[in-house]
Amino acid sequence: MGNQMNDKLDYIIENLAEKYPAPETELNHNSPFELLVATILSAQTTDVQVNKVTRELFEEFNSPDDFAKLNPNDLADKIKSIGLYRNKSKFIVESSRIILADFDGMVPRSFSDLLKLPGVGRKTASVVLVGAFSTPAFPVDTHVFRVSNRLGLANSDRVEEVEEQLKDLIPEELWADMHHWLIFHGREVCKARSPKCEICQLKNYCNYYQKKGE
Fold it and tell me: How many angstroms separate the CA atoms of 201 and 13, rounded?
């Protein structure tokens, strides 16, 4: 990594760390299993909406045993306000049954085992590893993907490649924090449509902003 990229990364980390101290997931949960369910629900849905649904849902069902007994259609009725709720209800019920059958009722702690669960991709598996088990991982959602490419911290149209580039660039002890910082920056400033470049403290280090001015 060249001095220019070092300086750029240091500046970005310093600014985001100051703006978003002690970052953590905004999905409400009280156990690794609840985080798994909430993260499955969060695909293409805001964390705010997921938290509204899980506030009631987790009072009634909060373990693999609870969800494994459900008919997916019954669960779908309880999560109707969530995007893709029919598929997600199937994923959650099936995953609960697999956790009971293959993992002694405990959410698996390895990336490869998490990927065996229906509805769990790289991002969801990484979120669970970071949020539930404090295991180093770098979840790449739409915000992380967009912001890291715009800033020039990554350069790829493939999510998995962006994940590997960020892992290579950023010290492992900062993976979890950087994941959250990029999400918060993407939600508040570097929006998909109409990014607020004029108020962005990172604009002088941003490839997207530099190209806009050309």
Answer: 12
Same domain, 93 and 107: yes
Does residue 129 sit in the same domain as residue 144? no
- Do both 171 and 127 map to the same domain? no
Q: Is 19 a catalytic residue?
A: no
Q: Which of 7, 65, 77, 123 is catalytic?
A: 123
Residue with tokens 């941003």: 206
Global pTM value: 0.91
Output the furthest CA–CA distance in the chain (Å, rounded). Answer: 59
Which run of H or of E encompasses 178?
helix 175-188
pLDDT digits (tens, 9 = 90+) for 63-93: 999 999 999 999 999 999 999 999 999 999 9
Catalytic residue from among 8, 88, 141, 177: 141
Does residue 201 sit in the same domain as residue 187? yes
Q: Give the CATH number for residue 142.
A: 1.10.1670.10
- Tell me which residue range forms the domain holding 42: 32-133
**pLDDT given for residue 176 in this prediction:** 95
Does the annotation count 141 as an active-site position? yes
Please determine, for residue 33, whether its predicted confidence score (pLDDT) is greater than 80: yes
CA distance 115 to 126: 10
Average pLDDT, the chain: 95
CB atoms within 10 A of CB 183: 21
